[in-house]
Write a structure and sequence with these properties.
Elements lengths: L8 H13 L2 H7 L1 E4 L19 H10 L4 E3 L8 H18 L7 E4 L17 H7 L2 H16 L5 E2 L23 H16 L10 E7 L18 H17 L4 E4 L3 E2 L2 E2 L4 H11 L5 E3 L4 H7 L7 H11 L4 E2 L5 H11 L5 H17 L19 H14 L1 E5 L14 E4 L7 H4 L21 H9 L4 E4 L11 H9 L3 E7 L17 H11 L5 E6 L15 E4 L7 H10 L27 H8 L19 E8 L3 E3 L3 E10 L5 E11 L10 E10 L4 E9 L5 E2 L5 E2 L3 E10 L2 E10 L3
Parallel strand pairs: 1-2, 1-10, 2-3, 3-4, 4-5, 5-6, 6-9, 12-13, 12-14, 14-15, 15-16, 18-26
Antiparallel strand pairs: 7-8, 11-16, 17-19, 19-22, 20-21, 20-25, 23-24, 25-26
Helix pairs in contact: 1-13, 2-12, 2-13, 3-4, 5-14, 6-7, 6-14, 7-8, 10-11, 11-12, 14-19, 16-19
The structure holds beta-D-glucopyranose.
Length: 744
């Protein structure tokens, strides 16, 4: 029970009063979430470029069945004015025709901007934000996305994704903050701060929805929505903490994992949903299922014989709202299950109370849509500039032989640009941009530059030759022309990568970059011209064979609308690269260790098995300048329970360019009762230094940083030796040891 001093008590009191007035049918309706196209003219999956509301469907779903939540869109992205028309019509209709005038909760996937509104600002995807190692860009993305969603009358964002992903084959790894728990915690909390602002009822803030609880990001096979095997002590150590922090930050809604962990589908795992998420982590709001997952329990997981039984399992496990999303079948099953006594009314009341609480807290009863004219900053130049800065800081320089970059002499340097991602906006934005897959250039925004266009603007049209060369897969087109253009240039830029797509469509059988793209590099290498690879991709696709042929490599992830400009600025030296990999970049498709890689490099010492042999390590990334580390000191070499160590290091810009350095701090438990991580990130800070300038970076390592989750699923610290490693390059860290003593 909440005390009356709890600031949320007032909203729960309102929720309780309203709940008392609702019939079972109305409660079941509140628990139902449908897709917008269930309310529009035409078929659900209609490809029409209009979203015209159908009053018969609205009447049936919103009034007869009392559906309480609607989400997403059809194929095309409506303008903010059209969103206003749609949301206002739905809210007004509900208000005019329903008994209690409960506003509909509208949700959407604004995973890197309000990208389902035409013309909105498109930010880099989460993986590229993680690569900035600068939480401010995550905060800004959350904030601007919230503003532009509210400008579209949408108050609920299905973001951020807090799935720690240790599986680079997984096609949705780009939606995450990568493989490390600490980065996920810091970036997730920053995003929520930006999105939820001072109060989610503010007209510029939204309620976030964390996803996907839990373990979705590390499927064994790498295929989307396929099983994961994660012992509980790992689940708690690596996967749970980002969710805990996010809930502590005031998150009220969480979406479930469509896959199964340890054989139990995420949607029926009562222990994880009710005991851990709602109990231990204290989620006050509600839990929503993912798309069509009641049916999935029947058709894919085989844990229920029909949807009715699946509904019973999910609701009893703790699911409060169901993303059906086609019709009111879920609501009808809930009514039947309560009437037959299979689901107690107390569970339904708990679910609906949580949902109404969120609606009250969001201020929807007072204002359920906003006029777009009140959002003058929508798609402003200053928002675009923030997106560009985020892209600049995330793009990661992985190789730069003989300092081929920056390529400064803009007016005179002749370059050849080629590759499937060179002249494509969709290849900068990636999935969840205007459309679900994000691969349809029909919806390209006018005035935004592809990489090729940005290079032409920077180096002059006459200096930039172009030929696409090849597609994502398929043959190389017009070899003679490619070779001749390359031979007439000084530097060759080859833009490679993945065709944007997500979820099941993104499943692959091998992490290798498709052969035709590698062939293009091999072909162009024969010209003897320096080669710069630009990688526009969600996953770290294996490029072992072509890496030696390249002089420089820029990993751009999916950097968003300003990504072309950001790349051109980095290439020309207007900006200096400072991104660092947020995941381990594998060298072989069958050697997919993450940086924690318990003990596997020791195998290498003993048996020459190349246990841990990535192409590039987590945390790796070059700059145009260089940094030196000195005077690494610790306040003590022994600590006791509940104490902390203070440390300090001096970082100096020893090169010729101004630049930013990510100072990374890792801890290594030398001996532990279960094999310790090779290292664990416990802190980082991004600093800016001019040539010759130094800065002192100080940090505190707390007793909690020494802990891991033992086999009893509890956090423990064990007496013994520890090492602290600090630096900007994972293979070149300065090190200090200390001892942890359990007694005083
Ligand atoms: C995805 C979620 C998304 C939902 C609504 C699902 O298929 O897994 O991440 O929020 O659809 O679009």
């Amino acid at each position: 029970m909440l005390s009356t001093s709890d600031p949320d008590a007032v909203y729960f009191a309102k929720a309780d009063s309203l709940l008392n007035l609702l019939t079972l049918e109305e409660k079941a309706g509140q628990m139902t979430n449908i897709g917008l196209t269930a309310l529009t003219q035409g078929e659900f999956w209609t490809q029409a470029d209009t979203l015209l509301l159908d009053s018969a469907k609205m009447s049936n779903l919103l009034i007869t069945h009392g559906v309480g939540s609607v989400q997403n869109k059809g194929k095309y992205p409506p303008s903010k004015e059209e969103w206003y028309r749609i949301v206002k019509s739905i809210q007004d209709f509900t208000k005019a025709n329903s008994r209690h005038q409960i506003p509909v909760l509208f949700g959407i996937d604004g995973v890197h901007g309000a990208t389902y509104t035409a013309g909105s600002t498109i930010f880099p995807h989460q993986i590229a934000l993680a690569a900035t190692w600068n939480p401010e860009f995550s905060r800004i993305t959350g904030e601007v996305t919230a503003y532009e969603l509210r400008a579209s009358s949408i108050p609920w964002n299905y973001a951020p994704v807090l799935d720690v992903s240790m599986q680079p084959l997984w096609g949705r790894i780009f939606e995450t903050f990568g493989e490390d728990t600490y980065i996920n915690r810091v970036m997730g909390a920053a995003y929520i701060e930006g999105a939820q602002g001072k109060s989610i009822s503010d007209s510029i803030s939204v309620a976030v929805c964390l996803k996907h609880f839990i373990g979705y990001g590390t499927p064994v096979s790498g295929k989307d929505r396929s099983p994961a095997l994660i012992p509980e002590h790992y689940l708690r150590q690596y996967y749970l903490e980002p969710f805990r922090d996010a809930i502590d930050k005031g998150t009220l809604t969480v979406m479930l994992n469509s896959g199964a962990v340890n054989g139990v589908p995420g949607h029926i795992d009562k222990y994880l949903i009710t005991d851990v998420l709602k109990g231990e982590l204290g989620l006050k709001g509600f839990v929503i299922t993912d798309w069509g997952d009641i049916a999935r329990l029947v058709e894919n997981h085989f844990v229920a014989k029909d949807k009715r039984e699946a509904t019973k399992l999910a609701v009893l496990a703790g699911a409060d709202m169901c993303m059906v999303p086609y019709d009111a079948s879920f609501a009808m099953d809930v009514i039947d299950l309560v009437q037959s006594g299979e689901i107690p009314m107390s569970r339904i009341d708990d679910a609906v109370r949580r949902i109404l609480f969120v609606k009250f807290k969001l201020g929807l009863f007072e204002k359920s849509y906003h006029h777009p004219a009140n959002f003058p900053e929508f798609a402003s130049d200053s928002f675009a500039n923030l997106s560009r800065m985020a892209a600049v800081e995330g793009i990661t320089l992985l190789k730069n032989e003989n300092n081929i970059l920056p390529l400064k002499d803009n007016a005179r340097t002749k370059v050849f640009v080629t590759g499937p991602t060179a002249n494509s906006l969709t290849s900068l934005n990636g999935p969840w941009s205007r459309t679900f897959k994000g691969d349809d250039p029909t919806y390209d925004d006018k005035g935004k530059k592809t990489f090729l266009q940005a290079m032409q603007a920077k180096y002059g049209n006459g200096n930039v030759l172009y030929e696409q060369g090849t597609d994502f897969t398929g043959d190389i087109i017009d070899k003679t022309s490619i070779l001749s253009k390359a031979s007439n240039s000084e530097v060759v830029f080859i833009c490679l990568g993945e065709q944007p797509t997500t979820e099941k469509f993104s499943d692959i059988h091998s992490l290798d970059l498709p052969p035709n793209q590698q062939e293009l590099v091999k072909l162009l290498h024969t010209t003897g011209k320096p080669i710069v690879l630009v990688l526009l991709q969600g996953r770290p696709r294996v490029i072992r064979e072509i890496e030696p042929l390249a002089d420089a490599i820029l990993m751009a992830y999916w950097p968003g609308h300003e990504g072309g400009e950001a790349l051109a600025q980095l290439i020309s030296g207007e900006e200096s690269p400072s991104g660092k990999l947020p995941y381990t970049y594998p060298r072989y498709t069958n050697t997919l260790h993450t940086y924690q890689h318990k003990g596997s490099d020791k195998l290498d010492d003993n048996f020459g098995m190349n246990g841990f042999n990535p192409q590039w390590q987590f945390g790796y990334g070059l700059s145009y300048t260089s940094f030196g580390y000195s005077n690494f000191t610790l306040s003590t070499d022994t600590i006791n329970t509940n104490y902390s160590i203070k440390g300090e290091v001096t970082v100096t810009n020893t090169g010729k360019y101004a630049g930013k350095e990510v100072v990374q701090l890792y801890i290594r438990d030398v001996v532990a009762s279960i094999t310790p991580d090779d290292r664990k990130l416990v802190g980082f800070e991004k600093i800016s230094l001019n040539p010759g300038q130094s800065a002192k970076v100080s940090f505190t390592v707390s007793f909690n940083d020494l802990k891991f989750v033992g086999l009893n699923n509890k956090w423990i610290a064990e007496e013994g030796d520890f090492e602290l490693l600090i630096g900007g390059n994972p293979s070149d860290m300065v090190k200090k040891s200390f001892y942890y003593k359990t007694s005083k």
